[in-house]
Amino acid sequence: MLWSFARPHLPALLIALVLGLATSAMALISPLVTEWVLQTLAVAGSLRDPVLVLLGLLIVGAAVGWFQWVMLGRLAEDIVYDARRRMVLRYLGSRVFALLERSPGELVTRVTSDTVLLNQAASTSIIGLINGAITLVGSIALMAWLDFPLLAATLGAVLVVLLCFTVLVPRIATIEEKAQAALADLGTEVEGTVRSIKTVKSSSAEHARYASVMSHAAESRRQSLRSVRIQAAAWTITGAAMELAIIVVLGFGAYRVSTGDLGIPTLVAFLLYVWGLMGPMMELTQNLTTLQSGLAAAGRIAQIEQLPVESAELGVRITEAADEGSLLRAERQLSATAVERRPEPQAPEPPNAAIPVLKLSGVTARYEPHTPPIVEDLHLTVPRAGHVALVGSSGAGKTTVLNLLLRFLEPDAGVIRLGGIPYQQLSHAEVRRAFAYVEQETPVVPGTIRQNLQFSNPDASQSEVEAVLERLHLAEKIAELPDGLDTRLTETNISGGQRQRIALARALLARPRVMLLDEATAQVDGVTEAAIQQTIAEVARTSAVVTVAHRLSTVLDADQILVMDAGRVIGRGTHQELMETTALYRDLVAALRIEARR
Ligand SMILES: Nc1ncnc2c1ncn2[C@@H]1O[C@H](COP(=O)(O)OP(=O)(O)OP(=O)(O)O)[C@@H](O)[C@H]1O
User: Fold this and answer.
1) What are phi and psi of 260, to 5 degrees?
2) CA-CA distances (angstroms) from residue 93 to 97, 428, 435?
3) What's the CA gap between 455 and 451, in Å, rounded?
4) 223-229 long-range contacts, Cβ below 8 Å, gap at least 24?
5) Is 504's C-beta closer than 6 angstroms to any atom of ligand 1?
6) How far is CA 471 from CA 147, 464, 511, in A?
7) Interval between CA 374 and ligand 1 midpoint (Å)
8) What is the 391 CA–ligand 1 centroid distance (Å)?
9) Between 123 and which of 75, 118, 206, 529 could a Cys-Cys bridge form, CB atoms 3.0 to 4.6 Å apart?
10) Whose alpha carbon is nearest atom 7 of ligand 1?
11) Which CATH superfamily is domain 358-597 in?
């Protein structure tokens, strides 16, 4: 899996490997040159040549080392960038409720921190492992050439390290996985606490939240500490084994020098190799541990692939980084959506204006398979112009109808038609292009107010934007902000009602065939209420408006009202008709009257 992230960067990886090997080769030559220096000293010869060679090795080694470092850095960043690109595409292409089911904190950590663990594993440590292994074998070969008995003593120590690897490395992998999962949980906790900070404070629940977040922080610490302990053990054993090897070589070598079997220059060169072995041994230990964290991260990143996507074109493979095709297809699909969204300025009326813009026939839908349907056998016709209001008690399935219209949810049975064409024959983008949607909780989309207003119609002109702002009584407020329309929209610089009006302005600028409005259940201020009412009335003259109505004024104005109860439509008609025929409607209206009077 890890290799699949590295494979597209094979040429860079190979160059970095060759450079690494060159650096290692130079490090391997140094002790031999040292032996040469010592031997030259013993015969009182000129030191010029060996010293020049040593200097040359130093300079070339430094230059190659620097270049390799930069190359590896770039490679690592390329891998992260590529993985992030794939993940974000997958998020944007996935089915809405599959994405919403996962915690935002977790989705964020996958893109931000898991990718960083991955990059090192897929670049530096793959190369480090190959390089370390080759250097190790090279050192051992050169040591065998220098003195075989001394090598046998050294290998004893190397064996200890290898044994330690086989026992410890699999454990590091398991623990790393747990440590990263604990980190993601912590992310989820912090994110949720910050998001609900007002509720937390107003309920004096800081302590409870603090305890909960800190218990996750403690768990993360505990898992990371376990990982640190094992890594420390691996490092200590490696270090101690190498120290031991040096002592053995020193003692045994000194004995062999005293018996005349070994020259001092050879012993020094051999010792330098044993010292030099430290490098590759440590490199191997380090890289194996990094590789384990990377593998755990890659596993978590790969889970993103299980998010079901809306269409095959958006099915970006995360672990098949070499599969550039899937990535380009998804990017093309997204940009095609952006192009399609631009409304045609004078869309010619289709020849048969009698065909309703939306028609739902016998639609049944559920969020999870094998659960009771949330909407059952729904029939609904939305004419090309006019206002259809959905009313009903909480949980009746009104928002679910909007989810069906926007194709966030697919029906289990029945057909939805847009302008007479079944949804199945249209792409998700083609369906959504017909709509503008104002959510109940009007979220802040990251960006400036201008971007928030224009992202569904980037071609809207300045005068159109100004006109819409004027109409929704927002112009004055926006003029007061430090950067006007270019002020970043935050949760605090705009009030809830103003944010709703911004969402409404965005919907108006999109000039949709159908405007969907999920009214806020909470009371909104008078200005916003009047703006909503006036907007619905104006838009409904030329196009369709479907509202989930929570206000009396909205209900009274509607041309057609559907009363929903437990997923079914139990009454439909005008206000007058329903007052006479439907008891639940009378109750609802009575409740709204009380609300309105307050
Ligand atoms: N993503 C989801 N997954 C599973 N069940 C869901 C999901 N969204 C809504 N439901 C369930 O569907 C039912 C209808 O919800 P829906 O939001 O459509 O009701 P509503 O009529 O709009 O209510 P309200 O007026 O309170 O917003 C509820 O029982 C809810 O628990």
Assistant:
1) 85, 10
2) 12, 10, 18
3) 6
4) 223/175, 223/178, 223/179, 223/181, 223/182, 224/179, 224/182, 226/175, 226/178, 226/179, 227/172, 227/175, 227/176, 227/179
5) no
6) 91, 11, 15
7) 8
8) 14
9) 75
10) 367
11) P-loop containing nucleotide triphosphate hydrolases (3.40.50.300)
Q: With a 6 A CB cut-off, is 132 part of the ligand 1 pocket?
A: no
Strand partners, 354: none
Among candidates 286, 305, 285, 277, which has minimal Cα distance to 110? Answer: 305
Minimum-distance ligand 1 atom for the alpha carbon of 390: 21
Q: Which 8-state DSSP code applies to residue 444? A: P
Q: What is the pLDDT of residues 327-364, one digit of tens each?
A: 888 888 877 766 665 555 444 455 566 789 999 999 99
Domain ranges of the chain: 2-326, 358-597
Mean pLDDT, rounded, of the chain: 84
What pLDDT, on the 0 to 100 scale, is given for residue 560?
93
Ligand 1 atom 17 nearest Cα: 399
Query: Is the beta carbon of 373 within 6 A of some atom in ligand 1?
Result: no
Is the distance from the beta carbon of residue 392 to the nearest atom of ligand 1 less than 6 Å? yes
With a 6 A CB cut-off, is 567 part of the ligand 1 pocket? Answer: no
- Phi, then psi, of 78 in degrees rounded to 5: -65, -40
Q: Is 398 in the pocket of ligand 1 (CB under 6 A)?
A: yes
Residue entry with tokens 């490679």: 75
CA pseudo-torsion sign 259, 263, 265, 269: negative
If you average pLDDT over residues 165-180, what whole number do you get? 80
Distances from the Cα of 311 to the Cαs of 308, 330, 368, 443, 517, in angstroms?
A: 9, 10, 19, 25, 26
Ligand 1 lined by 399 (C-beta under 6 Å): yes
User: 34, 29, 180: which is closest to 110 by C-alpha?
Assistant: 180
Q: Is the CB of 393 under 6 A from ligand 1?
A: no
pLDDT value of position 345: 46
Q: Which pLDDT tens digit goes with each residue over 457-470?
A: 888 888 889 998 98
Distance (angstroms) between ligand 1 centre and the Cα of 318 equals 32
The 10s digit of each residue's pLDDT in 55-96 is 888 888 888 888 888 888 888 888 889 889 989 999 999 999
Q: Is 390 helix (H, G, I), strand (E, B) or coil?
A: strand
What is the spatial distance between Cα 409 and Cα 431, in angstroms, rounded to a whole number? 13
Concatenating the DSSP letter of every residue in 87-132 gives HHHHHHHB-HHHHHHS-HHHHHHIIIIIHHHHHHIIIIIHHHHHHH
Ligand 1 contact via 325 beta carbon (within 6 Å): no
- CA–CA distance, 44 with 49 (Å, rounded to integer): 13
Instruction: Tell me, in angstroms, the distance from the centre of ligand 1 to residue 101's CA.
Output: 14
- Minimal-distance CA residue to ligand 1 atom 6: 367
Q: Give the single-character DSSP code of 311.
A: S
Per-residue model confidence (pLDDT) at position 340: 61
- Which residues fall within 8 angstroms of residue 122, CB to CB, at 6 or more apart? 2, 3, 5, 6, 76, 79, 294, 298
CATH fourth-level superfamily of 2-326: ABC transporter type 1, transmembrane domain (1.20.1560.10)
* Ligand 1 centroid distance, CA of 111 (Å): 29
- Percent residues over pLDDT 70 in the chain: 95
Among 399, 440, 521, residue to substitute to test ligand 1 (most atoms within 8 Å of Cβ):
399
